[in-house]
Amino acid sequence: MVEAALPEIGPDASLLLVDDDEPFLRRLAKAMEKRGFVVETAGSVADGKTAALARPPAYAVVDLRLEDGNGLDVVEALREKRPDSRVVVLTGYGAIATAVAAVKIGATDYLSKPADAKDITDALLASDDAMPPPPENPMSADRVRWEHIQRVYELCDRNVSETARRLNMHRRTLQRILAKRSPK
């Protein structure tokens, strides 16, 4: 398979990544550095705002829900300092209302997790009038369900009872799902 040429990043390749999922943040930072970005990471709204105000990047990828608040606060801070920056908002809780709110305050695009580095790069570098292509290999419904359950499980600090309550399912059913491997 021949990989298509990457879109042009431009003279300023600074990229701020804001996410409280540390393993995801490390993987994404590494992948974006390989694509030519100069990456700075932050794990909270406070750290993200500090970085955005001190060194406003040309590009940013911000998680919507962070442990200490809303990622849209980082987007607003960045827009105040650098209105030309291209910002992609990521979330594991995709909803039309939050997508509209993100775009209203200046986000360039809005992607649901899990998004890979290619999807994020395409969103960051897309021209404003270009429509993104549909995903080449979309996840199965079983995989999407499993990813959502895992995310809620992690947000509940791996507490099975609390996760089952939030997902409105029986605790034993959840335990069986968690004991299985992830679907393809």
Automatic annotation (TrEMBL):
Modified residues (4-aspartylphosphate): D63
A Pfam entry, by short name: Response_reg
GO biological process: phosphorelay signal transduction system
Transmembrane segments: none
MF (Gene Ontology): DNA binding
Domain of life: Bacteria
Response regulatory domain location: 14-128
Gene3D superfamilies with a match to the protein in the record: 3.40.50.2300, Homeodomain-like
Entry keyword Transcription regulation: yes
PROSITE patterns from the UniProt entry: RESPONSE_REGULATORY
SMART domains associated with the record: REC (SM00448)
Assigned keywords, A-Z: Activator, DNA-binding, Phosphoprotein, Transcription, Transcription regulation, Two-component regulatory system
NCBIfam families membership: ActR_PrrA_rreg
Stated role: Member of the two-component regulatory system RegB/RegA. Involved in transactivating anaerobic expression of the photosynthetic apparatus. It is a transcriptional regulator that is responsible for activating expression of the puf, puh, and puc operons in response to a decrease in oxygen tension.
Full protein name: Photosynthetic apparatus regulatory protein RegA
Native source organism of the sequence: Tritonibacter horizontis
